[in-house]
Amino acid sequence: MTKEYLKELAKKGSEPARNGFTKARILFCNDADIEDILSLIPVFQKTEKKEKLLSFYSDFWLNYYYFLKSRPIDGYMKMNTIVEIIYSIYRIILQENEILFDCNRRLEQQVESVSEKAVELVRLGRKLEISQSIQDADRFVDKFMEITTYVPPKDLAVVLTRYSKDFQEWWRQLRPNIKEW
């Protein structure tokens, strides 16, 4: 790992990459700058919070209101839609609470650490994962709406445009893909 790599990570690293340095410590180094750089890495990026909230909300909105609720789907598409709904809601919860996203394996644990209401949200999310029913999706989303503080844009075009940018034009952005952002 080079000094340049650490500088880049501190400047524009994804949340999982940043989170990987949460408990990092220097065992041996003769470069005094490294300690200062290292302290900048596992930091929640408040300047990106608004944009990330919009991205995750747009992912939620299209998957829940369009793909799940207004289109007949089954099989892979239904499973993927449910996963996107759960994932995006969990990422919104982490953003609202300024918690760095660790990884998919610990995502539910991270959300549960937020509050008792978030524990209930994860319980409903697990039920939805198994059933993939619209009724369980509705219960999950209702619980999310009860606990979220996020206020989405009133203009739906902003939400839909963001979805297109994140999922169809992501390669044009100089930032990580939404799944790692």
How would you concisely characterize the structure shown here?
By secondary structure, the chain is mainly α. It has helices at about 5-10, 15-20, 35-40, 50-70, 75-95, 105-110, 115-130, 135-145, 155-165. The longest helix has 22 residues, at about 75-95.
Commentary on this structure:
Helix content is 62%, strand content 0%. The protein is an all-alpha fold and 181 residues long. It has 2 domains: 3-43, no CATH class; 47-172. The chain is globular, with a radius of gyration of 18 Å.
Key phrases:
mainly alpha; 9 helices; 181 residues; single chain; 2 domains
Q: How are helices and strands ordered from N to C? A: HHHHHHHHH
Contiguous low-pLDDT stretches (5 residues minimum) are none
Determine the oligomeric state from the structure.
single chain
In DSSP terms (H or I, runs of 4 or more residues), the helix count works out at 9
